[in-house]
Amino acid sequence: MSPILSTHGLGRTFRTKGGPLHALTDVTLDCDPGRSLGVVGESGCGKTTLNRLILMLDTPTAGEVRFKDKPLAQLTTNERKAYRRAVQPVFQNPYSSLNPRLRVRKIIREPLAANTTMSRAQIDARVDEVLEAVGLSSRDADRLPAEFSGGQRQRIAIARALASKPELMLLDEPVSSQDISIRAQILNVLKDLRDEYGLATLFVSHDLATVRFMCDEVVVIYLGRIVERGPANVICSAPRHPYTQALLAATLSADPDAPEMATRPQGEIPSPLAPPSGCPYHTRCPHAHDLCKAQRPQAQPAEGGGTVACHLVEQGGW
Amino acid sequence: MSLLSIRNLTVRLGRAAHAPAILEDVSLDVQPGETVGLVGESGSGKSTLGMSVLRLTPPLLAEGTSGEILWNGQDVLKMRGKALRQLRGGEMSMILQDPMASLNPVFSVGSQLGEALKRAGRADLQAAAEAALAEVNIPSPAERLRSFPHQLSGGMRQRVVSAIGLAQEPKLIICDEPTTALDATIQFQFLELLRALQKAHGMAMLFVTHDFGVVARICDRVAVMYAGRIVETGPVREIFRNPRHPYTRALLAAVPSTREAPDRLPVIDGAPPSVGNRPEGCAFHPRCPLATDRCRTQPRMEPQAPGHDAACWHAKEVAAA
Fold first, then answer.
1. Which helix (H) or strand (E) holds B143?
2. Which residues does chain B have within 8 Å of residue A185's beta carbon, measured at their own beta carbons?
3. Which listed site, A122, B109, B137, B285, has its alpha carbon 20 to 30 Å from A138?
4. Mean pLDDT confidence for B190-215
5. CATH code for position B279
6. Are the Cβ atoms of A256 and B252 closer than 8 angstroms?
């Protein structure tokens, strides 16, 4: 089956006073129906740029995004409408992503009215349906966002995304601003919806534990480049790239007797305006040697599945 | 004697006896050199507790505060003017979540750090400031002293804040979610630094957080808060291994782990009550699977094991489950 959405050598360079800023470089990934792809990285790694490029809020300076094998730049007006309907975002902060002056019904119906040919009655029925799908009730449709808690607001945002029967949901840190007990509720809802509707999801997160729960496959981005990709269980329990290992060590488990990880995080995240030569991670890598400073490692197939871009893994370990 | 002893602290929204309470009847002790975690969801009152200890709550809450906060046997709630100023940033200091809000954007790092060191009575300010930055792992400290807060990364700003907080060799440092705004790897490094500093200076820490991973990593003891009360407290290992309060147990179960991917996460239905709408008796009872009629009256903190207390009528059932 062909992917719903794919990126091919995707790159975005911003021109700034301080010189070119390579926000995203050579990112290739596929979102297949019913599958969940995780994108993991820290601030400044290019997660937000990737989202903006996929949502057509920005245009790439290299490579392209394809919708069902057709580059976004070549979509006809109708195809573009179909794309906007098929790819729906849910953002991190439900306090800023919902218009405080609109009632929930209006919030959910707007994208439907704009993007579909549904009648008023059909739209109203759909609003009730999606509210129930996310665990709210049709009575909530006549209330304002301010009447809901953070967790309920995020459910409304999910209902809005779900309303146009999307094929891909773009989840940008959807639970980072939520409390633990609410976080688990939202994650369960998202997982149920994915299974029920066969949705593809692109789940952007900085937390390996959430990614392990939500995703089938994971790509790890560092300073705009994919450094490792593979099945979620491998990336989140036995990663091969030193950066992913450091991320795993930094994911503090709720267990006072958790074993210490061998590779611990060190150093500062470099500025994307002055990225290091060679391997972008060499300034923080405990195993770096001369080759890492001189030459950028290419992604190579790795044991356990997926690929790793690291000279040392390539040479059989350190 | 405890370094800090909070006794029956209640903080209401104003002076009136029936005003809604943010904190109710909270008692907690901190021993010299230990790290106590204060964990709970938003609105549980954990930050208000941290702020109350330094008397930093807004006037409305300050009026509604009753109980005792004993510091070396003296009641912080009865201190005035000079004594209070000497306490804040002196024997007790604080690190807040957002370092950009703690630092003054128009003064250099050197001048803000210098101010604290001067209060500590240090003679050679330049050398002392450089040493203080070096201690918190800031590279090329002499140069950084001339930087302004906006020129530093989030992790570095937070380290500057800790250097300022440590300037007067406090005996207790209150940390209110100091790593929440930091990236995972930077959070890890900052926690390591805090642990090292704590050991080197022999300070106690009161660590406010919502993250059980952070608690497991750095705390000796932990107090779990729900709707303005401490519902369970004990040594970290004991709380994680044998939680006796259904809320603690459910929260711990709801945290995803990198080690396994279950089909569903166990959830707690509903949401925490807002300050004005707290249920009678045990505030957790509407969300609790074990709740009975008895739970409509407030349970007292009862010992479960040495140093481990929980406020639940059904604690024995939780232990058996």
1. helix B141-144
2. 267
3. B285
4. 94
5. 3.40.50.300
6. no
Tokens matching residue B1: 């004697």
ipTM score above 0.95: no
Residue pLDDT, tens place only, B89-125: 899 999 998 999 999 999 999 999 999 999 988 889 9
Instruction: Assess contact for A200 and A168: CB atoms under 8 A.
Output: yes
Q: Has residue B260 got a pLDDT over 90? A: no
Residue A208 and residue A222: Cα distance in Å, rounded? 14
Q: Do A233 and B261 touch (CB under 8 A)?
A: yes
Residues A219, A175: Cα–Cα separation, whole Å: 19
Q: How far is residue B321's CA from residue B315's CA, in Å, rounded to a whole number?
A: 10
Range of B97's domain? 4-320
What pTM value is reported for the model? 0.91
Whether residue A181 and residue B256 make contact (CB cut-off 8 A), yes or no, is no
**Cα A49 from chain centroid (whole Å):** 11
- Provide the pairing of β-strand B221-226 with B35-39: parallel
Is residue A196 less than 8 Å (CB to CB) from chain B? no
Number of domains into which chain B is organized:
1
Over chain B, what is the mean pLDDT? Answer: 93
Domains of chain A, start order: 5-314 (3.40.50.300)
Contact A176, A200 (CB under 8 A): no
